[in-house]
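Following up on my earlier message about zinc ion. Here are the inputs again, as you asked, copied directly from the submission form:
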Amino acid sequence: MNTRSLSVALLLSALSPARALDADFPPTIVPPAAADLWVSFDKTDLAKPEAAEFPLSGPVLSDERTAVYKVRAEMLPLLSQFMHERFNRCGGYLTHDTMTAARASMRPTAAVPRIAYTLDQQATVAPLVAGVREENIRGVISAMAAHNNRYYASPTGVEAARWLRGRWSELAAKIPGASAELFAHASWKQPSVILAIPGSENPEEIVVLGGHLDSINGWGNSAARAPGADDNASGIAVLTEAARILAESGYRPKRTIQFIGYAAEEVGLRGSQEIAAKYASGGKKVVGVIQYDMSNFAGSGEGIFLLTDYVDPALSAFTARLIDAYAGVKSYTTKCGYGCSDHASWTKKGFPAAMAFEATFDGSNPAIHSERDTLASSGGDASHSVPFAKLAVAFAVELAKTAPPAGTN
Ligand SMILES: [Zn+2]
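Thanks, got it. Here's what our run produced:
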């Protein structure tokens, strides 16, 4: 029996009430306070052969594209494991705290007004991207991966978020008016982390660079080892290196730049959905979002792979131009599917989002969601992530200007 069929067999047996009474399995889970949740899946995923043993029956809501199921919170890691086993996804579904929220997520959201994306900051960006250092990215990956896990419902998941807030506070201290704050979530303990650099001209307009800070072991055991070096300490490390460069250069944006480390991505994009919903209901003007989720495994060779699904086409095309101009590698495209990562939370709320990925979807790191997702299993250094950090610097600077000179493009 291969690992995949063994794991799915264990998963399915764990879901039967008789098996769940066993002392040793499923492993101990720390349940969040609110136990009933609603999870949405893409119906085209559920119709695929890979979903033949989909562990839920009877959606409580359904339309032509989406099916929503009511579950207990303890089910989330098992659903993540199912989507990982069968679809090779980091995510793959969306979790909602209430039925009302699930229903609202099925309605199309009006897109927020778009800005024109222009590329004209070479004089500023070129010297900044030259400062990206592989050893800094490697250092943050190692520090994040040193936590036993960063699971959203484990004490070390909270510790890891606090560690990141500390690191980002050191950077914020170098920038007038900047701050690094925890964003508390009502339904679980792990906070998100936001490093904000205020804009000098249009501070109400926001450029978001984000990635999830949590990790998961496939069985959702809150004590199990889940280094998450690639998924997604690498994305957090890329963001941190870009923030370091901006902080130490004396650069000041005209729009506000926010670096966000999202909590609880691995259990249905919960942290980013809450943040995107809050920004939408608060009328915040988010002019562009880039998501970093796995940047360190060179499974398809050199380059940055931009997702083409659940993203904004114009911003993604512009991001490809930024890669050509500044990252020192070529850009490619790939698809990842429904609920793949936090960019989907922003897209769902009408905000323009792009997503930069390490490889083609099929070439991505097979060790994620296990104790094997170590720095060693993505090559032992952070060299594949270096162009991603250059892109992050370029994305921040080119989007956080306000009025490009007339006639430029
Ligand atoms: Zn991930």
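One observation from looking it over: Confidence is low (pLDDT under 50) at residues 1-33. Hope that helps, and feel free to reply on this thread.
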